[in-house]
Amino acid sequence: QSPARNHTKSDRERPASTDAPPPPPPTADNEQEGVYMCDQCDKTFSKHSSLARHKYEHS
């Protein structure tokens, strides 16, 4: 059998890498971002709610 290894606090806790960028903040309305295109004028929007609001201009 191999000898038991003494685990120390430093083995378990490693500092977070400073090279990685912070995660993006959550959106206020938790919508999935993507490309949404108006079927009447081909304008594009990053959020579905923006497209829905824009569509009222055509009615």
From TrEMBL:
UniProt xrefs under Gene3D superfamilies: Classic Zinc Finger (3.30.160.60)
> Where are the stretches annotated Disordered?
1-35
Record localization: Nucleus
Any one cellular component term from GO for this entry?
Answer: nucleus
Q: Name one GO molecular function term.
A: zinc ion binding
Which superkingdom is the protein from?
A: Eukaryota
- According to the UniProt entry, the coiled-coil residues are none
Primary location group:
nucleus
Keyword terms of this UniProt record = Metal-binding, Nucleus, Repeat, Zinc, Zinc-finger
Which intervals hold domain C2H2-type?
Answer: 36-59
- Please give the InterPro entries that the UniProt record associates with this protein: Znf_C2H2_sf, Znf_C2H2_type
GO terms in the biological process aspect are: regulation of gene expression
Q: Which SUPFAM superfamilies is this protein grouped with?
A: beta-beta-alpha zinc fingers (SSF57667)
This chain belongs to which protein, by name?
Answer: C2H2-type domain-containing protein
- Native source species: Bracon brevicornis
